[in-house]
From TrEMBL, chain A:
<dbReference type="Pfam" id="PF03813">
    <property type="entry name" value="Nrap"/>
</dbReference>
<dbReference type="GO" id="GO:0003723">
    <property type="term" value="F:RNA binding"/>
</dbReference>
<feature type="domain" description="Nrap protein">
    <location>
        <begin position="453"/>
        <end position="612"/>
    </location>
</feature>
<feature type="domain" description="Nrap protein">
    <location>
        <begin position="308"/>
        <end position="447"/>
    </location>
</feature>
<dbReference type="InterPro" id="IPR005554">
    <property type="entry name" value="NOL6/Upt22"/>
</dbReference>
<dbReference type="InterPro" id="IPR035368">
    <property type="entry name" value="Nrap_D3"/>
</dbReference>
<dbReference type="GO" id="GO:0006364">
    <property type="term" value="P:rRNA processing"/>
</dbReference>
<dbReference type="GO" id="GO:0006409">
    <property type="term" value="P:tRNA export from nucleus"/>
</dbReference>
<dbReference type="GO" id="GO:0032545">
    <property type="term" value="C:CURI complex"/>
</dbReference>
UniProtKB/TrEMBL annotation, chain B:
<dbReference type="InterPro" id="IPR000504">
    <property type="entry name" value="RRM_dom"/>
</dbReference>
<dbReference type="GO" id="GO:0032545">
    <property type="term" value="C:CURI complex"/>
</dbReference>
<feature type="coiled-coil region">
    <location>
        <begin position="249"/>
        <end position="276"/>
    </location>
</feature>
<protein>
    <submittedName>
        <fullName>Ribosomal RNA processing 7 homolog A</fullName>
    </submittedName>
</protein>
<dbReference type="GO" id="GO:0006364">
    <property type="term" value="P:rRNA processing"/>
</dbReference>
<dbReference type="InterPro" id="IPR040446">
    <property type="entry name" value="RRP7"/>
</dbReference>
<feature type="domain" description="RRM">
    <location>
        <begin position="56"/>
        <end position="154"/>
    </location>
</feature>
<dbReference type="GO" id="GO:0000028">
    <property type="term" value="P:ribosomal small subunit assembly"/>
</dbReference>
<dbReference type="GO" id="GO:0003723">
    <property type="term" value="F:RNA binding"/>
</dbReference>
Length: 1127, 282
């Protein structure tokens, strides 16, 4: 099955490739384009009406702009149910109600006797223990009413759920039913009876059971209409108690309603009532059935007072849904959202005249600032004296929000962690809402936040059965009884608090997935707890501390030692530190940065093993599955490069005897900002592998041997002091620079014995096994290149390509490097994300479309403007968000602003946006604005083209989907490299290369088994001096350059620069058009003469032959897929 | 070989409308495919360049990237002695007068398909080339004179890229001497001109503002622009804002119009987003 899955995804990609090709060949695309508005003078200046004036003023004062207001209105229109849909629902409800009311009576039997049910319907209840007392019969319900969001008018798309309450008739019930699951079982039996009755009718096609918010004590019956609107809505039938049937005080959280004796089946020695443990969760679940109608009345009374109530609830629900907080066990559902709004209205925190926008804002503000885990709130105005106090509730439940009756805690199942997550989300939202640089609407309500993309690390508990033994180990029998045997939710709070204690300051937030309510067909038994999907936990790391290998405990003589030892078990040991202190401490393994990032994993597996009896094999840690696609020691290697560079730069500064002094030494290479995918490693060379160039004492590759190891030159820009001695002429400046290179080389050789090679454009320095390429720069040179004297002697300044390229190399690149280097210091995983992102781009053959610098900037934007997330704390999550950014950003209508060093103000943002809108068509398709480059998007000016960007977006979306599925589902085939293997079917020609001439072969996504000797001595100590090695010699790049220069007009060439052994060629569509003979467009074409007319067609045979000729020695074979060529 | 080419002249030369003769060219004797090279005599009305004499120059289109000047010279010497070969990216007149650069400082050449201007010693050679039959291809690389491509060529390129520092220094020095000399000459010329202005034959002195030799007004585009801006600013400073009632009313009107315009813009943006289904939250 798994292979089938992957092949499907590949197929999909392939299809998409085809589609992109099709789009490209059609050249015409359906794009809705934004044009600047043109209003006539009359329209603009006509006198305003009072109403219009009000509207305009409101928009100006209440919102950032009227845009946000209109966006919210549009969103509401999208989610609100249409009239047509409502009619459908109403008519369906009517028929269902009629059917339910005609349910036939059956004779009274024991509850345990289920023989009256035909075999086709099973009871939706896990019968644990097997039997209980009581009598049961079927009878028509006392009443059938609508309850919940549909009745209130706050129901929104999608997943429309209409809730109906069916009140059990009095004859079914007995006064003692609250004890020992008697009522819950009757409720389940009654639903089964209803299901059996409905099954015989033709109106309802699908009947399924589910349970309310994952609580197995409260099953519900789901009805789905037949025919075409089968998936449009579901009706949930709840069985309820008649109002006031039981006294609510019976369900005080301190009282016991499940007897230990009955539950365990063992006779206890002292049957005294006082020793029985309280069962708050059980009590709460029965109490919940007493009150739905009064809740509805309460909410409709509140909503009638506030006109925007329904809209406010709808917005809040969308907000919750995007954060995956509104479904599953222990969720903060729409009902709670409406109750919260009602609370705010009643307590006058919001006024009834506010708009939906303000309601949302105020409720988020309230959530962010109120901690319901310590100070619960209550809706009860004057609670009756029997009602429990807030303190009672706090003792029994983690989160407290009491309903209007004063007896029910509506947040009983919500864990403290979920509430903390809610609070965190609310405060993050409030934070970016006010930021004018963020598209508030989009981040707030439109961006989904799945756990895998939100949390830095995610781990899953796979074998849920193991939790049973955790319950046993922690002695949680009473709690288990209270949860009626649901060991998952019994153990969950305990595990959460354990992890919270163990991880402590390392994490900002511990979130967990909410187990979705199981849905099963009426014919099958209720599913067991262990069949539920794995529990996922998400960690939001504190980057400064999370990777620390040492956990320092209390001093040896402190009273806290036992506690510390109890938590960490045998891992805790006494240690003496440099400051003289002797403390308890735990030391985790971690040599490289990559391993240190996994310290939380070590902690989690250790604690779970120690305290919860969960073996390491049932914990699936997905925090770093993607990371090993790039070398894991990259950070350390980059550090070596940076240190070597620092040393060189110091030595350059100290050089004496230069005619002008050095004003700045700047690095301009990705390795110097920790973002090089494969950072250069110091090498020791085997000289016998090479030829020698006698005059220059340099090594030269031999053509009979495999291509030597590629040595990356690390670019360093060396700015020279400005002086009147510099000539004012472009050629002369170039010669002076060459002279500087020569004298720098002489000095470096003399003072430090570095091997140097001066060239007119640069100076190569061989230092400790690394190659640096120093370029001398003169800050006025771009200006000189731009100046020109016209015939009249007027000095004019005109921009040109040469000047731009020079500015890019000597000004912008060093600046970017230093800024991103700074970013790496703030966010330790920035470099790792960049490396993953660039590896992916290269593997998918996009590295020529999105350059290294542009990719680094894209990643930087994820860190600088993470809304609605927080800055990525692990490489994997950063990479997932990079893919999401690529695939979902609206490049056509928005500039991506990368606010490096926080230099841009709100006014700058507006300016950038306006300039962008005004001249959209002439700007690059992918527009990146930085503080130093607000108008031009320097880094994406050349590429990508619109077609390639589309392809990038599509492939990114597909990769993201495949990757997220794989990461979240342990049962799928686990091979993250699937997203790094591009489909090659879409290309016209494949040029296969000789692996021995591909110097970076070892860096391939799937490195081949064979390796070649490339003239490197393994494990040698790098030295300076000696002959100059072969620097920057890569046959693949040279070949690609020749191909592009010769055939760039006819075809596109793609290759993975990191060890790709295939060059893929795609003909441009216009290649196939036969054109009339023109001297300027005859490249690689031949002619066909038809009478007087001459047509030129591309000479494919000769071109393919040229591919072989130009790459002689490198090309293994040329595979032409002629069947794809569209003549 | 030239003789054998001439034998087939009349019946097999392939001339296409437009006056070009199609020649075939293949890389090695056993290459399976051939390029088409188009040749014609060089005929341009306004060319005065001495480098391309009209009667002896052959204009060649579609010269493949592996044909360097030496290779082209060899290839076309079968039609007669070649005196010079010029290869360019695009057809056009020959280069302007840049100062002569040493080979280290010349920009790297593009390795694409080229157009060539081949000057023969005799004009008969042009005709010979034009009447060469299509089915007898020119062969670039033979056993006698192999042409390096691929890995061999790149290694050769790499080893040729070494420049001995002393030679580089020499060429820099030579250029800078030349540059200094040119500069001095230029200054000399300017000084002479200034001298000329100073007093003419009859002893009259021409009076100008400022120092001798310099112009009173900065003579650059940027300076012109700055001066213009300054004038504008001065003008604006003198204006009175919101002084009269009508001015005040106008400002208010402008404000409302501004709001309205923004409103309309937002509305359009929304319409656009709606069209793109941007409001579906999930």
């Amino acid at each position: 099955l798994t292979t089938c899955e992957t092949s499907k995804s590949e197929n999909h990609e392939e299809e998409e490739a085809d589609r992109s090709k099709r789009i490209r060949s059609e050249e015409e695309k359906e794009v809705v384009v934004y044009h600047p508005v043109k209003l006539s003078r009359n329209d603009l200046y006509r006198p305003p009406t009072a109403e219009e004036l009000n509207q305009l003023k409101e928009a100006e004062s209440l919102f950032h702009c009227s845009l946000l207001k209109m966006q919210m209105e549009e969103l509401l229109k999208e989610v609100v149910l249409s009239e047509h849909r409502k009619q459908q629902i109403d008519s369906f409800i009517q028929t269902v109600t009629k059917l339910i009311q005609t349910v036939p009576k059956t004779p009274k039997v024991e509850v345990n006797d289920m023989s009256w049910l035909s075999g086709a319907v099973k009871v939706p209840f896990l019968l644990l223990p097997k039997t209980t007392k009581g009598k049961f019969c079927m009878a028509p319900p006392a009443s059938v009413d609508l309850i919940g969001s549909y009745a209130l008018g706050t129901c929104i798309k999608p997943h429309i759920r209409v809730d109906m309450a069916v009140t059990l008739p009095a004859e079914v019930l007995q006064p003692k039913d609250f004890l020992n699951q008697r009522y819950p079982r009757k409720r389940a039996l009654y639903l089964a009876g209803l299901a059996q009755h409905l099954q015989s009718s033709s109106e309802v096609v699908t009947l399924r059971f589910s349970c309310l918010h994952g609580n197995r004590l409260r099953p519900i019956l789901l009805l789905t209409p037949s025919g075409k609107d089968s998936s449009s809505f579901t009706v949930g039938v709840h069985a309820c108690l008649p109002p006031g049937y039981f006294k609510p005080s019976r369900f005080h959280p301190k009282r016991n309603n499940i007897r230990t004796e009955w539950y365990t089946g063992l006779k206890t020695s002292n049957p005294g009532k006082s020793s029985e443990p309280p069962t708050p969760h059980y009590n709460n679940s029965i109490l919940g059935d007493l009150l739905p109608r009064s809740h509805l009345q309460f909410l409709s009374a509140v909503s009638s007072k506030c006109s925007a109530f329904a809209d406010g609830v709808a917005l809040l629900k969308v907000w919750l849904h995007q954060r995956q907080l509104d479904q599953g066990a222990g969720c903060f559902n729409g009902f709670l959202a409406s109750m919260l709004l009602a609370y705010l209205l009643i307590s006058h925190r919001i006024s009834s005249t506010m708009t939906a926008y303000q309601l949302l804002r105020n409720s988020l503000n309230f959530i962010a600032s109120t901690d319901l885990t310590v100070s619960g709130i209550s809706l009860a105005k004057n609670p009756d004296p029997t009602a429990p106090s807030l303190a009672d509730f706090h003792d029994a439940f983690q989160v407290v929000f009491v309903d209007p009756s004063g007896h029910l805690n509506m947040c009983a199942d919500v864990t403290a962690c979920t509430y903390k997550q809610l609070q965190h989300e609310a405060s993050v939202s409030m934070h970016f809402w006010d930021d004018p640089s963020v598209d508030g609407f989009h981040c707030l309500l439109m961006t989904p936040k799945p756990m895998i993309r939100t949390s830095d690390h995610v781990f899953q508990l796979c074998d849920l059965v193991k939790l049973q033994s955790s319950c046993k180990k922690q002695n949680l029998l009473c709690e288990l009884m209270d949860h009626s045997g649901d060991y998952i939710h019994t153990a969950l709070p305990f595990i959460l608090s354990l992890l919270q204690r163990g991880l402590g300051q390392r994490i900002h937030l511990l979130a967990h997935s909410l187990t979705p309510s199981p849905v099963w067909s009426v014919e099958s038994e209720a599913p067991k707890y262990k069949t539920q999907p794995p529990l996922s936990f998400g960690l939001l790391l504190n980057p400064e501390i999370s990777a620390a290998v040492l956990e320092r405990g209390p001093p040896a003589d402190s009273s806290k030692v036992p506690e510390f030892r109890q938590l960490w078990g045998p891992r805790s040991e006494l240690r003496r530190f440099q400051d003289g202190a002797i403390t308890e401490a735990v030391l985790w393994e971690g040599k490289s940065m990559y391993q240190k990032r996994l310290v939380p994993k070590q902690i989690i597996t250790h604690l779970l093993q120690l305290h919860a009896d969960i073996p390491e094999s049932s914990v699936r840690f997905v925090g770093a599955l993607v990371d090993d696609v790039v070398p894991s020691t990259g950070e350390e290697e980059s550090l070596v490069v940076v240190q070597s560079y620092d040393d060189l730069s110091r030595k350059l500064w100290k050089l004496e005897g230069l005619p002008l002094s050095i004003t700045a030494v700047q690095g301009a290479h990705p390795a110097l900002r920790y973002t090089q995918v494969f950072p250069p490693e110091p090498l020791v060379l085997d000289h016998s592998f090479f030829d020698r160039d006698k005059i220059s004492r340099s090594l030269v590759p031999k053509d009979v041997k495999p291509c030597p190891q590629y040595i990356t030159p690390i670019t360093v820009i060396c700015h020279m002091e400005g002086s009147g001695k510099w000539p004012h002429d472009r050629l002369a400046i170039r010669h002076i620079r060459a002279a500087f290179h020569i004298s720098l080389a002489e000095l470096l050789k003399k003072d430090h014995n570095y091997t140097c090679r001066p060239c007119p454009t640069h100076l190569d320095v061989w230092k400790n096994g690394l190659a640096f390429r120093i370029q001398v720069a003169y800050h006025r040179e771009p200006q000189v290149l731009r100046e020109r004297v016209t015939a009249e002697g007027l000095l004019v300044v005109r921009d040109n390509e040469e000047a731009q390229a020079l500015e890019m190399a000597t000004i912008h690149k060093p600046l970017l490097t230093s800024m991103l280097h700074g970013l790496q210091q703030q966010h330790p995983c920035f470099g790792a994300v960049c490396r993953l992102a660039k590896r992916w781009l290269a593997a998918q053959l996009f590295s020529d479309e999105i350059t290294e610098d542009a990719a680094d900037l894209l990643v930087a934007s994820l860190f600088l403007q993470p809304a609605p997330f927080t800055a990525p704390g692990s490489p994997q999550v950063g990479f997932l968000r990079f893919l999401h950014l690529l695939s979902s950003f609206d490049w056509r209508n928005n500039p991506l602003v990368v606010n490096l060093n926080n230099q841009l103000t709100a006014a700058d943002y507006t300016e950038i946006k306006n300039d962008f809108m005004a001249s959209r068509d002439s700007l690059p398709v992918m527009f990146l604005a930085t503080p130093k480059d607000k108008k031009l998007s320097l880094w994406t000016r050349r590429a990508p083209s619109i077609q390639m960007l589309q392809r990038v977006m599509m492939v990114a979306a597909e990769s993201l989907k495949v990757l997220e599925c794989q990461l979240m589902d342990g049962s799928q085939m686990q091979d993250v490299r699937v997203v790094m293997r591009p489909p090659l079917e879409a290309y016209d020609v494949l040029i296969h290369l000789n692996p021995n001439q591909v110097p970076l072969l070892g860096q391939a996504v799937d490195p081949p088994a064979v390796t070649f000797n490339r003239g490197v001595v393994p494990n040698g100590a790098p030295q300076s001096g000696g002959p100059l090695p072969v620097i920057d010699y890569n046959p693949v790049t040279l070949y690609l350059m020749e191909l592009r220069e010769a055939f760039g007009d006819l075809a596109l060439f793609f290759c993975d620069p990191y060890g790709g052994t295939v060059i893929s060629v795609l003909w441009k569509p216009k290649t196939f058009v036969s054109a009339p003979f023109k001297t300027s467009q005859i490249t690689a074409r031949t002619v066909e003469v038809m009478g007087e007319e001459v047509k030129t067609i591309p000479n494919f045979g000769a071109i393919l032959e040229d591919f072989r000729v130009l790459g002689k020695g490198l090309v293994k074979s040329v595979e032409a897929k002629t069947e794809k060529w569209a003549f | 070989m030239a003789a054998s080419g001439k034998k087939h002249v009349r019946n097999t030369a392939c001339v296409i409308p437009g006056g070009f003769t199609v020649l075939s060219l293949q890389f090695s004797p056993d290459s399976p495919a051939q390029h088409s090279v188009f040749v014609k005599e060089h005929k341009v009305r306004a060319e005065r360049s001495s480098g391309r004499p009209l009667d002896r120059t052959l204009f060649v289109l579609n010269v493949p990237p592996y044909c360097s000047r030496e290779v082209v010279r060899e290839l076309f010497s079968i039609f007669g002695n070649v005196s010079s070969v010029e290869l360019r990216d695009h057809p056009g007149s020959s280069e302007g007068s840049e100062p002569k650069l040493s080979r280290f400082f010349r920009p790297a050449e593009k390795q694409g398909f080229k157009v060539g201007y081949i000057v023969f010693e005799k004009s008969a050679s042009v005709a010979a080339a034009k009447s060469h039959p299509r089915h007898v291809p020119l062969v670039v690389s033979t056993d006698q004179r192999p042409v390096k491509t691929g890995v061999q060529k790149w290694i050769q390129q790499y080893s040729q890229s070494f420049i001995p520092p002393d030679k580089l220094q020499q060429s820099v020095d030579a250029f800078m001497q030349d540059y200094d000399k040119r500069k001095e000459e230029e200054e000399e010329r300017q000084r002479n001109e200034a001298e000329k202005q100073k007093d003419d034959e009859e002893g009259w002195v021409k009076v100008t503002r400022g120092h001798k030799g310099t112009k009173a007004r900065p003579h650059s585009e940027a300076a012109n622009h700055r001066a213009l801006q300054r004038e504008m600013r001065k003008k604006r400073r003198k204006e009175l804002m919101n002084f009269y009632t009508w001015q005040h009313r106008n400002t208010q009107k402008e404000h409302i119009a501004e709001l309205r315009k923004k409103f309309e813009e937002d509305k359009q943006r929304i319409a656009l987003m709606r069209a793109q289904r941007k409001f579906r939250p999930y």
